[in-house]
Amino acid sequence: MTVADFCRWIESSGFKAGDRLPSVRDVASSSGASTYTVFRAYKKMVDQGKIYAEHGNGYFWGRKPELAVSVHEREGDRLERLLLDGWNSGKISADAPLPSIKDLCSEFGTTPPTMRRTLEALCRKGVLERKGRGRYRFVNVHRVSAARLKEILLIMRCNQNGDFNCLGERELTFMQKVYAEARRNNLKVKALGYFEDGGVFLDAGGNRVDMESCRGCFGAVVSTMLVFNVNRLFAELACTRFPVAVWWEHPLYDIPRALKKEKRFAFFNLAFGEFPGRAVGRFLKEKGMSRIAFVSPYHMSMWSRDRLKGLKKVGLEVFEATDASHASPYDFMQESRYRANFRRILLSLVADIPPVDAWVVSNDRVGVELLSLVEQGLLRRPPYMVSFDNSVDSYRNRLDSFGFSLDALAEQSIFHLVSPGITLYKNDDFRELSGRVVEK
Question: Which secondary-structure segment (H or E) carries 230?
Answer without folding.
Answer: helix 230-237
